[in-house]
Design brief:
The protein is an all-alpha fold and about 90 residues long. It contains 3 helices and no strands. It is rod-shaped. The N and C termini lie far apart (about 105 Å).
Length: about 90
């Protein structure tokens, strides 16, 4: 006589293993995409000293947003330094 509970359990175990395999495959694919994005970004920065944020975003949107934030902070620091220098020059002229 066929033990239906055992057959059902075996089928469920097979489904679970297939799901684990598929999940592993997806994780591996995502890791490979991450490596490809990193390599593409390395190539971009090797070709250009200062690529645009849009070029970086085209490869990796999250890295592009972080890079845009960095560029904005760099610009702000440059403006602050220029303002401080201009003030120092003005005070020295007095």
């Amino acid at each position: 006589m066929v033990d239906l509970a055992r057959v059902y359990q075996n089928a469920e175990n097979i489904k679970a293993r297939r799901l684990q395999n598929r999940t592993g495959q997806l994780q591996l694919q995502e890791a490979m995409k991450g490596i490809e994005r990193r390599e593409s970004l390395e190539e971009l920065f090797a070709k250009q000293q200062k690529p645009t944020a849009q070029e970086v975003m085209a490869i990796d949107p999250e890295a592009g947003f972080d890079y845009q934030k960095f560029l904005n902070e760099q610009d702000e620091a440059g403006r602050t330094l220029a303002t401080e220098r201009a003030g120092a020059i003005g005070r020295a002229a007095l």
